[in-house]
Specification:
This protein has 464 residues and is an alpha+beta fold. The chain folds into two domains: 2-112 and 147-223 and 416-463, FAD/NAD(P)-binding domain (3-Layer(bba) Sandwich); 227-412, no CATH class. It is 31% helix and 24% strand. The chain has helices at 10-23, 84-90, 95-108, 122-134, 152-166, 208-218, 237-246, 318-332, 342-347, 353-358, 379-392, 445-463, and strands spanning 2-6, 28-32, 73-75, 115-116, 137-140, 144-146, 169-172, 177-180, 185-188, 193-195, 198-201, 222-223, 227-236, 252-256, 263-270, 274-281, 284-290, 300-309, 338-341, 369-370, 405-412, 417-418, 432-434. The longest helix is centred in the last third of the chain and has 19 residues, at 445-463. The radius of gyration is 21 Å and the shape is globular. The termini are close together. The chain binds flavin-adenine dinucleotide (FAD). Flavin-adenine dinucleotide binds next to α1, β3, β17 and α12.
Length: 464
Amino acid sequence: MRIAIVGAGSAGLFAANEIAQNLGNKVEIKIFEAGPSIDKRYCPQKKEYECAQCDPCRIMSGVGGAGAWSSGILNLNKNIGGNLEKLCSNASLNVNTIIEQIDTFFVKNGAPNNIFDPNKNGKELTQLKKKCAAEDIRFIPIRQRLLGSENTPNVIKSIVKHLESQFNIQIIPNTKVIAFDTQKNLYFKEGGKEHFDYLLLAPGRWGMLWLANQCDTLGLKTFYEPLDIGVRVEVPSIILEDICENIQRDPKFHIITPTYSDFIRTFCVNHEGYVVKENYEENIVGVNGHQISINGDSETSNFAFLIRQKLTAPLEDTTEYGRSIAKQTSILGGYKPLLQTLGDLRNGHRSREALIKRNPVQPTLSDYTPGDIAMAYPYRFINDILEGLEILDKVIPGVNNNSTLIYAPEFKRSAKRVDVNQYLESKQAANIFFAGDGAGLSRGIIAAAVSGIIAAKGILKKIH
Ligand SMILES: Cc1cc2nc3c(=O)[nH]c(=O)nc-3n(C[C@H](O)[C@H](O)[C@H](O)COP(=O)(O)OP(=O)(O)OC[C@H]3O[C@@H](n4cnc5c(N)ncnc54)[C@H](O)[C@@H]3O)c2cc1C
């Protein structure tokens, strides 16, 4: 029995583990990964890990997937990263048990015993919830484990070692799959094809456009998902200290904006962290954030502030819409992220380097263009961001200051969701399974792992 997994991210690695745990060496599993092995995920030109200029992009692509260079915040909650409860119950699985199983596996592979549980500080949590309720903000309390970017690669290395030494699993880096077909053949960039009994496609966001194109070519149905677009906000870390250190490391605030009734939320909060540049495709730069050490080591904290937008006819293609905004922003920034102070954004001025230099909050990203985000983003989104920050300021005083730094574009392009059954097998092609962010089935490390495990259980069910 031969199984191929495309993508060595969270979904692919957890799927492989689940299958092998159950079948041992009765199956041969090959994981094809377009990017380099975990040791080689640094930029050969710049000799640094943060560089996002290479093809494939070292941040998004390589063994460990996009999670390998993330802060490694594990959201141990069924409400984060997709509709995990529904995904699991469809497959007759208990979502909390699966999340627990994933967390235990991370710990076994060296994840630090560093849990942030908002319920531990019940009094502070109640106070925060009260404040939020008074301001029409929803706060989502979640248990989180923080790996920290400095630990995440070691955890990935340990998982890789476990999979390759215990089972008949081969993880093959620098091997881009350029196509698959419904006969379960894979075709490679270097030429040649290989046949398998089962395919599991888990190419993450780096491979999501490729996957959607492949599905279109093969007549496998896909659906558009909402776009998450906004900015990355950077503030002095002291502003977030009380919440991030006493209540929740990555606090989730949900707001409905007054003018447009749009949903805007905080996402990927990096307390005492860094803003990083991200390259999705040629001519489109974006921003993201990460935290190098568990305790944080910068003087600022950053978070994504994202508006969720669904589109209806005549343009349902949220990917294309998000891409066009990001492209316009990238062009304006000379293919560097735009940076503006909130004061300038509010007052309709382009930010200049001289002002940024004397701004009380200093950017942690050095490669930016001071600019005017309002020239690149639709009025509606700028309005949502300004209104959202004004409301958020009532529970996090200081976020709405003139000196707050705003970076763009920050967008989480949603992959097209593949039409799958309860075990994430294509409804149109037997024995082809999908998992993770690239198939529109998850958003986040834990959620991707959950989907990988469900797909693995689907494969196991067919084999037994
Ligand atoms: C900077 C950053 C910070 C983040 N921080 C967090 C965080 O703190 N917590 C959290 O939960 N999530 C975080 N995320 C998101 C998280 O990393 C993803 O949700 C998760 O990695 C998705 O897992 P996946 O397995 O679906 O895909 P990925 O991890 O993206 O892995 C997919 C892999 O498939 C490979 N691939 C794609 N196409 C092909 C192909 N054709 N052939 C061969 N290989 C291919 C890619 O190279 C990639 O390595 C962050 C992401 C980034 C970029």
